[in-house]
From TrEMBL:
Protein name: Bifunctional chorismate mutase/prephenate dehydratase
One GO BP: L-phenylalanine biosynthetic process
Compartments (UniProt record): Cytoplasm
NCBIfam families: CM_P2, PRK11898.1
Annotated Gene3D superfamilies: 3.30.70.260, Chorismate mutase, Periplasmic binding protein-like II
Species for this entry: Sulfurimicrobium lacus
Pfam families: ACT, CM_2, PDT
GO-annotated cellular components: cytoplasm
Length: 355
């Protein structure tokens, strides 16, 4: 057995040495590409999506496609940082799901910067103090994030990516606390996501919404009578004990985040386009807005209405369709929509989430 172990370990060492050479060779090519660009955009969402799709499709195993893609995500992140570490704003403070989404999309080599509000994320991206922002747009349990939708309508920014993040909620307490919690801090959406669990396990506890789950964790770390609902990262930041895990009511609880920038992405071959529009005030107007997608064979994956704030009972419709706005069928549908809609804004085209 000892001899067999040594043979395997020697083989692993040799493979590691070869991998080290190849990873650095890749980094040198990435640097050369950066020099050829001459200071232009170093992060190309469509190119990175194509690379990650290719490694997943070509992966022979035994590692899963997801695992391989995450490894390459970090390699690409480190290569980008050789040219210039990306600055990415998220809804802070440290330890939020928004930060986890930013790291999932850009890798650990990016510099993530927490903001006090979603509005601040948009402002920082617009001002150019950061390269990108990551903002929550909808949750599979809690629904749409209205603030993000409203800001997408108003801001002169583009959507250039999306991130799907599986959200696991934990009940966190100050270590050594024995008494049952009499109050539970968390973000309003997280409280909603754990509603039934709280009814069953902490029916008498006061539920107190706060600005973020990380803020909830901080408050719980200072109060022996309190608990927090937050993610695992928040427990590590504030040294809290994980009393219960995966307490979300919906086992497939997922939050979708959008990546915002001053630019969108070129076609990657598997894209989405987000837009917002409003209908004319006449019978059948909403039907007329949706008809071009059906007529040109464009699949619609989302339709969300929001009050327009310009008139009573007037609404804006947020729509996601499959395909890039440069694709022929999508372009034809959008051209027809421009004649039918009272208002139309293309929020951006971007690669569909790979990880």
């Amino acid at each position: 057995m000892d001899k067999a172990l040594q043979q395997h370990r020697a083989a692993i060492d040799a493979i590691d040495d070869e991998m080290l050479k190849l990873v650095n060779a890749r980094a040198m090519h990435a640097q050369a590409i950066g020099a050829l660009k001459g200071g232009g955009l170093i992060y190309r969402p469509e190119r990175e999506a194509q690379v990650l799709r290719r490694v997943k499709e070509n992966n022979p195993g035994p590692l899963s496609g997801e695992s391989v893609a995450r490894l390459f995500r970090e390699i690409m992140s480190a290569c980008l940082a050789l040219e210039k570490p990306l600055k990415v704003a998220y809804l802070g403070p440290e330890g939020t799901f928004s930060q986890a989404a930013a790291i999932k999309h850009f890798g650990h080599a990016a510099h993530t910067e927490g903001c006090a509000s979603i509005d601040d994320v948009f402002r920082n991206v617009e001002a150019g103090t950061v390269d990108y922002g990551v903002v929550p747009v909808e949750n599979s349990t809690g629904g749409a994030v209205g603030t993000t939708l409203d800001l997408l309508l108003e801001a002169p920014l583009k959507v250039c990516g999306e991130v799907d993040l599986r959200v696991h909620q934990f009940l966190l307490r100050k270590p050594g606390t024995m008494a049952k919690a009499v109050k539970v801090y968390s973000h309003a959406q997280s409280l909603a996501q754990c509603h039934e669990w709280l009814n069953q396990h902490l029916p008498g506890a006061e539920r107190i919404p706060v600005v973020s789950n990380t803020k909830a964790a901080k408050l719980a770390s200072e109060d022996e009578n309190a608990a927090a609902i937050a993610g695992e990262a928040a427990a590590e930041v504030y040294g809290l004990e994980k009393v219960a895990q995966n307490i979300e009511d919906e086992p497939n609880n997922t939050t979708r985040f959008l990546v915002i920038a001053l630019h969108d992405a070129a076609p990657s071959g598997r894209d989405k386009t987000s837009l917002v529009l409003s209908s004319k005030n006449q019978p059948g107007a909403v039907y007329e807005l949706l008809a071009p997608f059906a007529r040109f064979g464009v699949s619609m994956s989302k339709l969300e209405s929001r009050p327009s704030r310009t008139g009573l009972w007037e609404y804006m419709f947020f729509v996601d369709v499959e395909g890039h706005h440069q694709d022929e069928k999508v372009a034809q549908a959008l051209a027809e929509l421009r004649d039918k809609a009272a208002f139309l804004k293309i929020l951006g085209s971007y690669p569909a989430a790979v990880l």
